[in-house]
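>> received
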Amino acid sequence: MCLPIFIKIILNALGNVSIQNRRYTPVFQAKSWDKNGKIIPKPHAVIYSNLRYYVEALSNEETPKNVRKYFKERNPIPGVIWSSDDEDPVLLNPDDIMPPDHDIHCIESDFRSSHYIAQELSGEYLGHLGNKPEGEGTAAQLLSSYLSTMSVASREQGESIQSYYRINFSLIRESVGYESDYWSTEDLSSLDITVGVMGLFGEVEKDTEPYLVRSQDAANYSGAPPFSVPSFDDSFDLVTRKRVEVKVFDSSDSD
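>> returned
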């Protein structure tokens, strides 16, 4: 499976979903604050509007170290450089991740660049680009699981961003060896389950009370069957329940 196709599958799943007479609309989790009014970075809730707040908090030694350690163990942000202390990690390159002066003009520039790249790729790589009804998604988003200790590969101090992406282009997560339980309030198809596990749209923290759609109790009440999947250390086809070999796209590969 090529990485661009993987991203396309995830993006195409996002959007409104209609199942019988029920309509689901995805929303982002609100920012979390501690009792002192300090923002709490949540690894499963990273979006553009909170990214600068998050990298500032993670690079600040006054942010409780348990908060920084928790985020590092579940970090979804590529290219992050951490200090060497695993028990008291500090983010060392916040401005590389989200510059303090990134504004609407920068966003417009990013969109223009993305549009240009999409046009360049629309020939040979047309099948890798998303194409779906605006605003519509799939039921894969309804699959829920507990937030686990997975993180994208960290960038080493002194390592160039080009070298980092050459080595870690697949953005394979570290510290993955675990089995996870999944559930849904709707009875999902094998395809939706597969995409839901790939995208991890519905991660919830064990110590919090999720809203109804993400509630395991609600899923149990609905009658939709829960299930487990093996460790992501090995590739696993959820449809055939067999191990599969996954090819990660490498820009250095020949035709």
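>> The two ends are 15 Å apart (CA to CA).
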